[in-house]
Amino acid sequence: MATAKSGKVIISCAITGSIHTPTMSDALPITPDEIATQAIEAAEAGAAILHLHARDPKDGRPTPDPAVYMRFLPRIKQATDAVVNITTGGSVHMSLEERLAAPLLAKPEMCSLNMGTMNFGIFPLADHYTSWKHDWEQPYLRGSDDFIFRNTFRDIERILKTLGEEHGTRFEHECYDIGHLYNLAHFVDKKLVKPPFFVQSIFGILGGIGAEPQNLMFMKETADRLFGDGYRWSVLAAGRFQMPFATHAATMGGNVRVGLEDSLFIGRGQLAVSNAQQVSKIRRILEELGHTIATPGEARDILALKGGDQVAF
Ligand code: KMH
Ligand code: ZN
Fold first, then answer.
1. What are phi and psi of 257, to 5 degrees?
2. 86, 110, 114, 141: residue to mutate for ligand 1 pocket, most atoms within 8 A of CB
3. Is the CB of 12 under 6 A from ligand 1?
4. Which of 7, 22, 81, 310 to pair with 148, CA 20 to 30 A apart?
């Protein structure tokens, strides 16, 4: 079963991502300083894992530039014990080479690994805004109706080998649909993915499975069937489904992910002021329900990570 044997719930926080744009919220961290500050505060609030993307400090555009990552990674490492998890998804506009540049340089304990090629439609977000802080934002969002988020079997194998086998990085296996669990099972069969592996089930991205409770059940049942006790389960849901799905997942024995990458809100129609505010909220809910939050050290044990002293930043 996916239930953490420790009984502890790991909170991941995804600090900025590449879905939202600066117009949508003043709280979205852009500069290395903002990303570091919000990541550190999220860790202090209870996040054991920090999922990180970089943005161009000039205009907030997602960037794969390792030099930008290196302006916040050491600061986060010095100020917190939290597990640093660097995206290999980047944004849908980046090549695989670009997406791998910072992870290969930083050799972090964790990286995201998107488990299938898919549509990734963020264009509906553009309809909510009439003026924009930067010229790139609207075409970036609208163009996602004709982009393919590429994660072929060959791409996934390359990431598992170059980051996993060569540098001991372990993965947040991002599964946006039931089929992605079967893609993961293929790599488990090939022994390129070894227990205990971390499955991040994602609900509510246009192009992936919808945020409906029946799908949450089906996702977990399928993962249980495919992986038995070989996996640790975590859940994120986009937008207004973030907190209800995280809560529901935790009651089913899962771990949770929050953060401004996945939702800009803290309540109905109310923008969050920070990532830490979302971490504090889910922590409060979980503790009220009798759950205990995993420390970074406990998360390392649960996920068999190499340790914060084994990274290259
Ligand atoms: N934005 C999330 C839905 C990645 O960074 O690899 C997926 C994600 C992708 O976190
Ligand atoms: Zn991400």
1. -125, 135
2. 114
3. no
4. 22
Token pair of 112 as six digits = 């995201």
Q: What is the per-residue pLDDT for 6?
A: 61
- Overall average pLDDT of the 114-140 stretch: 98
Residue 17 Cβ contacting ligand 1 at under 6 Å: yes
Domain chopping of the chain, boundaries? 8-310
- Categorize the per-residue pLDDT at 275 as very low, low, confident or very high, splitting at 50, 70 and 90: very high
Q: With residue 170 as reference, give the H or E element that holds it.
A: strand 170-175
Q: How far is the CA of 6 from the centre of ligand 1 (A)?
A: 26
Q: State in Å: Cα 112 to ligand 2 middle.
A: 7
CA distance 120 to 298: 33
Q: Which of 223, 139, 143 is nearest to 184 (CA)?
A: 223
The residue among 11, 14, 90, 84 whose CA lies nearest residue 54 is 90
- Report how far ligand 1's centroid is from the alpha carbon of 175 (Å): 10
> What is the Cβ-side half-sphere exposure of residue 47, based on CA atoms within 13 angstroms?
29
Is the Cβ atom of 261 under 6 angstroms away from ligand 1?
yes
Is the distance from the beta carbon of residue 104 to the nearest atom of ligand 1 less than 6 Å? no
CA distances from 241 to 57, 131, 213, 244 (A): 30, 26, 10, 6
Closest by alpha carbon to 113, among 199, 185, 196, 190?
A: 199
Category of 31 on φ-ψ map: left (φ > 0), alpha (ψ -120 to 50) or beta: beta
The architecture of the domain spanning 8-310 is Alpha-Beta Barrel (3.20)
**Closest by CA position to 227, among listed 115, 103, 150, 110:** 115
Q: From CA 56, how far away is CA 38, in angstroms rounded?
A: 16
Centroid of ligand 1 to alpha carbon of 121 (angstroms): 13
Phi/psi at 152 (5° precision): -75, 170
pLDDT over 80 (residue 41): yes
